[in-house]
Amino acid sequence: MGSVRLDKVFKRFDHSAPVVNDFNLSVEDKEFVVLVGPSGCGKSTTLRMIAGLEDISEGSIFIDERRVNDVPPKDRDIAMVFQNYALYPHMTVYDNLAFGLKMRKYPKEDIKQRVTHAAGILGIGALLDRKPKALSGGQRQRVALGRAIVRQPKVFLFDEPLSNLDANLRVQMRTEISRLHNQLETTMIYVTHDQIEAMSMGDRIVVMNTGIIQQVDTPLSIYNEPANRFVAGFIGSPTMNFFEGKLTDAGGLTFTSGEGNLSLPLHSQDRSRLAQRVNSAVTLGIRPEHILAKQQNEHGRKVPVRIQVTEPVGNEIFLYFTIGPSANQYVSRIPADVQPAAGKEFDLYFDTSKLHFFDGSSGKAL
After folding, report:
1. Which are the contacts of 58, defined by CB distance < 8 A and separation ≥ 6?
2. DSSP H helical segments within 218-280, as ranges?
3. CA 103 to CA 366: how far, in whole Å?
4. SS3 assignment for 42-81
5. How many Å from the N-terminal Cα to the C-terminal Cα in the chain?
6. Measured between alpha carbons, how far is 294 from 347 in angstroms, rounded to an integer?
7. Per-residue model confidence (pLDDT) at position 162
8. For residue 112, with 0-12 CB atoms within 10 Å meaning exposed, 13-18 middle and 19 or more buried, which class applies?
9. What pLDDT, on the 0 to 100 scale, is given for residue 296?
10. Rounded Cα–Cα distance for residues 8 and 25 (Å)
11. Facing residues of 220 across strands?
12. For residue 119, what is the enclosing H or E element?
């Protein structure tokens, strides 16, 4: 078993405001949970507290329902993979993998079996006699993973392990780590600032900001039903478009932006839910893929725009545009076979069945 529970955990440095604030989370055995958020949000500090590398200021941490606040890292039955590979440069790959087991006085045959098994899983069996300087970045990362695997811990902790790799290797190693999770059936907690990693790897995602959990849910639920404006803007690339304005009711509930450059009738699914918000300040959010180049259904509402920049990315184009006299820039994702010219007027279609609304003051989803 490898469950992890954090109960009302706080972390402060030098009596300052908490960098981790009232953190509550239960990670089930064999679950893959990703902590994601901007730099400085407290996600790595949280991971280090689970590992025992940082003391907690308040609260309790449990591993398999055993309170580990005062248990040293070596006795928590966890293994951690860091952003820097932390390999011993003078040792071979074999010795790097075996080092932790040797320190724990494991029998030589047991060490050999574990190292060989881990090397086979990671495809580095042919590298065991090499030293780290003779390895590529991806190979070094595999060795760092192997050093954790040989421990056979209850819980794996990953602290932005792919940050030093190039784009292609990052994609490859994401797949490798997900495959390892399925193969090893071990609890994994993974920290990243990259929301693509979070969306593609986690069973559940914990979105953090300023030390506070903003939302915990499956990747698709967080994407489709963000709890607040911060989550909506952080998850998704390109980011969600936001319009400040209010709801009016003149023959039907309508959103009107504060600048008056956008007016959209609400879909029937939103009317009853938001009827009490008439004349209240709200923020409308719509994802770039729901601003269409052609009217595809009855929910599409034509909005004349001025194209500022077109950004082809292969199978699609990111279209940056303004509406009316406003200088605010928004973005749409359109098929690559539609190629409007920069500086020209163009008609886009907002899918009103895909709108998100947030309270204008608190930012909470409505």
Report:
1. 8, 9, 10
2. 219-224, 229-234, 268-274
3. 55
4. CHHHHHHHHHCCCCCCEEEEEECCEECCCCCHHHCCEEEE
5. 39
6. 8
7. 87
8. middle
9. 79
10. 9
11. none
12. helix 108-122
Return the residue matching tokens 């993979």.
81
| Those residues with Cβ within 8 angstroms of residue 361's Cβ, 6 or more apart along the chain or in another chain | 281
What are the tokens at 159? Answer: 């602290």
Task: Please give the structure tokens belonging to residue 187.
Answer: 């609890």
User: Among 67, 341, 32, 249, which Cα is nearest to 157's?
Assistant: 32
Radius of gyration of the chain, Cα coordinates, nearest whole angstrom: 25
Of 45, 1, 2, the closest CA to residue 23 belongs to 45
- In sequence order, the β-bridge partners of residue 322 are 306
pLDDT tens sequence for the chain (366 residues): 689 999 999 999 987 889 999 999 999 999 999 999 999 999 999 999 999 999 999 999 999 999 999 999 999 999 999 888 788 999 999 999 999 899 889 999 999 999 999 999 888 999 999 999 999 888 998 899 999 999 889 999 999 988 888 888 888 889 989 998 999 899 999 999 998 999 999 999 999 999 999 999 999 999 999 999 999 999 999 999 999 999 998 778 899 998 878 999 998 888 888 988 898 899 999 999 999 998 877 888 999 999 999 999 999 999 999 999 888 999 999 999 888 989 999 999 999 999 999 999 999 999
CA–CA dist 249, 184 (Å, integer)? 56
Of 320, 295, 316, nearest in space to 305 by CA: 320
Pair 68, 61: CB distance under 8 Å: yes
Residue keyed to tokens 């990671």: 122
Other Cβ atoms less than 10 A from the Cβ of 88: the count is 12
Task: Give me 178's structure tokens.
Answer: 């997900």
The sign of the torsion formed by the CA atoms of 167, 44, 100, 106 equals negative
**Amino acid (one-letter) located at 156:** F
Number of CB atoms found within 10 A of residue 155's CB: 23
Cα separation, 158 vs 169, in Å, equals 17
